[in-house]
Amino acid sequence: MKFFRSLFQQICSFSYKTIVLAELEMRKLRHDPTELLTRAVQPALWLLVFGQVFTRVRAIPTGNLPYLDFMTPGILAQSVLFIAIFYGISIIWEKDLGVVHKFLVSPTPRAALVLGKALSAGVRGLAQGLIVVVIALLLRVHLNFNLLSLLGVAQAVVLGSALFSTFSLIIACIVKTRERFMGLGQVLTMPLFFASNAIYPISIMPSWLQVVSHLNPLTYEVDILRQLMLVGGTGTYQIGFDLGVLAAITIILVLIGAVMYPKVI
Amino acid sequence: MRIIETRDLTRRFGELLAVNRLSLTIDEGEIFGLLGPNGAGKTTTIKMLTTLLPPTSGQAMVAGFDVRHQAARVRKMIGYVPQLISADGTLTGYENLMIFAKLYDVPRREREERVRQALRYMGLEEVADKLVRHYSGGMIRRLEIAQSMLHHPRLLFLDEPTIGLDPAARRTVWEHIINLRQQFGTTIFLTTHLMDEADELCSRVAIMHLGQMAALGSPQELKAAVGQGEEVTLDDVFIHYTGNELDNGGNFRDISRTRRVARRLG
Description:
heterodimer, A: mainly alpha, 78% helix, B: alpha/beta, Rossmann fold, six-stranded mixed β-sheet, 10 helices
């Protein structure tokens, strides 16, 4: 009994501290939201230029969806990925400043620090999601505004951000300098994006790439988004399965991150 | 009561022996200064005592707990102000304090009062709601010390607390450090390479050189041991024990870091 009470207290304290770290991020964003706006440029260009051109070409089989609709969830996932994959740079920045030292000396479990960072990336991802939805609305994409679907979309965005930002944190802890990190980040983003179902269905890929894209977590994120965001959207897997895959990978990454994070200093 | 006790504390980085068999005891209520040139092993020592770096060998007890095996308990007992700037420039002073009050488990009912008290104590009430980015160097340091004191630790680690500050700001920080000890009985462990700082603040100092302890005692004792009759400053003591070869420590990385901190604080 006593054991369970102490376990319960520890879980509460763990969750609380994770949320405090996300709160920190939200406060930062509130003081300086300009970053969010500059980040909106890239998805806007993809939808406006790439999306509109390829809608005319009709080269990609998208079932009964217009191409622009088909790619919108993909672009949302992509812009969330791009933010998250460079999240590690802030860890290196904080290390150079001394912020990391202070977090590590505080009585906060390592895993809570890492999960808190992941959740913070989720907050940024949600803000980005909102921007993509607004752009998509302006372009008359047929979005589904069912409340439950919206919640599902938010969940997928937070999970996707958490997953890729924790991946990014682990890389940052290994490479330790900004220059090396930027190089690696560039190398990683494009394969993750193109070897997924973000802007074309997996079925048109050569078979080796199909295998790669099934190993790519981004594929599962897009699969959820495509089913929930669009009117008449369809996917490959059950949403529950997609969420399970993303959650499992995130948990594994957070555990690895908890071991790696103290090594960043 | 002994608040810090190390025995043969050692840390290697590959070939480099950063701290070599350091044995040290510090009593509760002391202001203890660890002196030494750049690269002498001061920061490595402080990182081991604050649980940031595991020792390669040897033992360290801090506030009664082993830094290696009881790290989580050590963390609850201590406060730490890193040499680098650790306050978040994109938040206000108040927010910086509030976040740490939460991370340090200050009970919800007391949080607001503790944060207000810390701001008042450090003379930061007026600028509490300004972004820390706009603070002066001395204000940032005071805020950082306030952050590290929110949970009323018994032991406070300050790594080069006045690096990059102008003389007036330095003096204010010194006064606050002395006050902390008088009001709360906090034991203070600081590193510095400013001899007047050590002379002004410390009840006892240790001089480190090439990872080892070269001398230990009160500033008066050390001066007496080195000089015979003539007017001796702590500078002379320092040079006596560390040799006066120029530039025997501190690599490019250390120096560029130190200068960056100095620029941001100045």
